[in-house]
Amino acid sequence: MSPAASAPSSGAAQPPRRVAFQGEPGAYSHQACRETCPQMEALPCRTFEDAIEATRSGRADMAMLPVENTTYGRVADIHSLLPNSGLHIVAEAFVRVHINLLAVPGTPLEAVREAVSHTVLLGQCRAFLRDHAIHPVVAADTAGAARTVAADALPARAALASELAGEIYGLEVLARHIEDQSNNTTRFLLMARAPDWSRRGRSGMMTALVFRVRNIPAALYKAMGGFATNGVNMTKLESYMVGGSFTATQFFAEVEGHPEDENLARALEELRYFTSQLTILGVYPADPRRH
């Protein structure tokens, strides 16, 4: 029997009201909240742990957490937090990350000498900064950089951030979409207190799980065999140390399909035979932009 639904659906009488995210207003996670959950109030949190706790405690109905970026790679902190968060993945969202040069209104581009932002964004705009002789300055986060630039009101200093940050802090966009990689995209996971296996997505379903293999020769190889023989596509497999031990390893995996699908059900049954621990973290519709 499927777990009870908790995420918003077309038949829900009252949709969730708040979605927590890490960062200040105007962060790219805030943009993800606006795009994915426009009917919900976005709740800024200082850390990823705070966003998870806000959801766990009921102050927020969901948490919007970034897990990987096409340019930067995976968000390691999130992957280590997921298994013990006490939350369940109920959706995924792919958000196009456009980086913009923001300055106080009336500033000409040639007046800018410094660009302030998170080190990740600075690294993604090297070509533009080099071509315009703009010196990169590292800040703790993107939205915070925009807020600081607005407060300092120095024409020579600009911020690299989202257009949403410019809107919130009253900054002018001097240059749009200046990232080096034209496909710069961040994938987010929406987490809730209860799982929802009730939906079927038009672009297919995804299942996320964590497991530990039994301490026998070729256990991982044998555990993966069930997915191959049953025609289940595995889109992600990552390993993590457990408790600081080099011999205890936990795996995070994502596969296409729903646990109630016959082929995935057989694959999971075979996986259980070779594992000492198996937990399904979420079952959710695949974002159309995944494909």
Automatic annotation (TrEMBL):
One Gene Ontology term, aspect cellular component: cytoplasm
Coiled coil: none
Organism, scientific name: Rhodobaculum claviforme
Name of the molecule in the record: prephenate dehydratase
NCBIfam families linked: PRK11899.1
CDD domains found in the cross-reference section: ACT_CM-PDT, PBP2_Ct-PDT_like
Matches recorded under Gene3D superfamilies: 3.30.70.260, Periplasmic binding protein-like II
Gene Ontology MF: a single term: prephenate dehydratase activity
Pathway: Amino-acid biosynthesis; L-phenylalanine biosynthesis; phenylpyruvate from prephenate: step 1/1
This protein's UniProt keywords: Amino-acid biosynthesis, Aromatic amino acid biosynthesis, Lyase, Phenylalanine biosynthesis
Pfam family, one: PDT
